[in-house]
Amino acid sequence: MACLKRLCITFSVIYGILGVFFLFSGIIVSSYKTEELQFDSETNFGITICCVFGSFMILLALLGSFGAYKEKKWALGVYNVFLVLQAVGCFKVLPSLSSVQTEVNTGVLNDFTPLNQAKGHIQKAVNKMQTVAECCGIWGYEDWGDSIPQSCHCPPDYENKASKCHHVKPPSKDTWSWQRGYGKPEGPKVEVYKQPCGPIILNYMEMGIKYGVGLFITITLVVTISAMLHLLMCCHIKEPTPSSPVASGEDPKPPAYTVLYKGQGS
């Protein structure tokens, strides 16, 4: 019984840790919301679901740990009801996960092009990525049209410049980068990164989908095992048997030893 109790508490703690992960994921994502970067309604709904679901998992894990530690059948019963419902929902979704395409549709990125006509926060994000990942454009520098920013330019001391950069002739009116602080227009030719940023973004998106599917499978396993363990413990807990009431005409105290001795001698 002691070993079963420890297992129940352990899986309740793991379940609570997963809830903390959901809660902090929603909080962290919502912290990126600024005046320039506004989320759409679907993203806001997803953030709200993560926060609410994570908070509910944490409270449920505390209830399960309390029920296992104090051996309270009512707490274990409530905990099991919610876990069984969640397990049923997870098993209904699991078959559809096998058909999820890890290949992200490139049309999602095509909506951002041409970059010189994209929204300001998208241009800012792409410029940051171009500087860090040493790439240019979604599918190439042509995505910027006549506004190739300084973040696409290869630095003068860049290693393997011949293989990673190529010369392009900037347009006659290359003022976009100068107006936004990315440098003044250079000479008749500039060197920009050959590698596009699109494949890098797709790789991160595919990795995120794989991690999401793995996290969902982990939650399903934890919920199923935890429900089975708590249900088993609930069945092993015995209700305390009430003591039989003593009749009013009877003396609840046993007779003294002297009385018994005299009774035997007579």
UniProtKB/TrEMBL annotation:
The chain crosses the membrane at residues 7-32, 44-63, 211-233. Gene3D superfamilies: Tetraspanin. InterPro entries: Tetraspanin/Peripherin, Tetraspanin_EC2_sf. It is a multi-pass membrane protein. Keywords: Membrane, Transmembrane, Transmembrane helix. It comes from the Eukaryota. It is found in: Membrane. It holds the Pfam family Tetraspanin. One of its GO terms (cellular component) is membrane. Its main location: membrane. This is Tetraspanin. It comes from Albula goreensis.
